[in-house]
């Protein structure tokens, strides 16, 4: 990965008033800014992803895909608190000379969006042609489009919401309970909480997929089994896979940030706040999504001016926003064609 780093020379003040004396942002860019400077595609990534969007969103982003470096200037920044280079709980606290761990300041989705804006300023990008994000990435993109409505021209929100639900908070709290039950989490060590993180990932997977997904993909071929089930092996494998590439402290803080998401906080009713968005918007829901049910996306489309809504059918539940790239390419490609510059008339399609 060709990761670039930007060191912000000013103290970064978070929404709650706490500060980070040092802020480093890891990011990647693909392609070139054109002469008109109107080909920027900015990606806000989800919970445990990174800035290498050509890797984790293959089929939608790539040399031969809808969003390709030949036609677009693609930017993806690693989010605040994440494991992949941007300032996070394992970064050194300049006041102590040791990693922050649980002394890292709490942050929310508005803070995540503020970091994205800082990078855009540094890159001298005044106009973003398309801002896109799914899940936690969609929450960030939404906050950015509210904070800077004139900067964002087109907005694509996938499997996300205006206010994180009690259901979503409960899933995240269950994961944090698993992490905090691991005594090593409190040891202030980079590998602290590994077993807890493994259990947390197992819990998360149940919200990313659904009953039917497991019923087919993890179905046993024998009627004689009483132990060592495929579903058990799958949960263990996925938990271990995350532990190898992420840390429990970042996971803890990022899940808290997701819980914090509420566009109405300090502003008014969510439906009124969404009207601040000027970007022509496409909202995409997934029929089988248990974590961000389609009703949450319909709410967005109904209250964002110039918003259209489409709903895709997927076997993969919430993870469909990462997997169903063929149908996403079709829906997003159609949206881009009908919202080309000079044409801002978009019809809201409601699902009966």
Automatic annotation (TrEMBL):
<comment type="similarity">
    <text>Belongs to the AB hydrolase superfamily. MetX family.</text>
</comment>
<feature type="binding site">
    <location>
        <position position="319"/>
    </location>
    <ligand>
        <name>substrate</name>
    </ligand>
</feature>
<feature type="domain" description="AB hydrolase-1">
    <location>
        <begin position="40"/>
        <end position="322"/>
    </location>
</feature>
<protein>
    <recommendedName>
        <fullName>Homoserine O-acetyltransferase</fullName>
        <ecNumber>2.3.1.31</ecNumber>
    </recommendedName>
</protein>
<dbReference type="InterPro" id="IPR008220">
    <property type="entry name" value="HAT_MetX-like"/>
</dbReference>
<comment type="function">
    <text>Transfers an acetyl group from acetyl-CoA to L-homoserine, forming acetyl-L-homoserine.</text>
</comment>
<keyword id="KW-0012">Acyltransferase</keyword>
<dbReference type="InterPro" id="IPR029058">
    <property type="entry name" value="AB_hydrolase_fold"/>
</dbReference>
<comment type="subunit">
    <text>Homodimer.</text>
</comment>
<dbReference type="GO" id="GO:0004414">
    <property type="term" value="F:homoserine O-acetyltransferase activity"/>
</dbReference>
<feature type="active site">
    <location>
        <position position="289"/>
    </location>
</feature>
<keyword id="KW-0028">Amino-acid biosynthesis</keyword>
<dbReference type="Pfam" id="PF00561">
    <property type="entry name" value="Abhydrolase_1"/>
</dbReference>
<keyword id="KW-0486">Methionine biosynthesis</keyword>
<dbReference type="GO" id="GO:0005737">
    <property type="term" value="C:cytoplasm"/>
</dbReference>
<comment type="pathway">
    <text>Amino-acid biosynthesis; L-methionine biosynthesis via de novo pathway; O-acetyl-L-homoserine from L-homoserine: step 1/1.</text>
</comment>
<feature type="active site">
    <location>
        <position position="318"/>
    </location>
</feature>
<dbReference type="GO" id="GO:0009092">
    <property type="term" value="P:homoserine metabolic process"/>
</dbReference>
<feature type="binding site">
    <location>
        <position position="201"/>
    </location>
    <ligand>
        <name>substrate</name>
    </ligand>
</feature>
<dbReference type="InterPro" id="IPR000073">
    <property type="entry name" value="AB_hydrolase_1"/>
</dbReference>
<keyword id="KW-0963">Cytoplasm</keyword>
<feature type="active site" description="Nucleophile">
    <location>
        <position position="135"/>
    </location>
</feature>
<keyword id="KW-0808">Transferase</keyword>
<dbReference type="GO" id="GO:0009086">
    <property type="term" value="P:methionine biosynthetic process"/>
</dbReference>
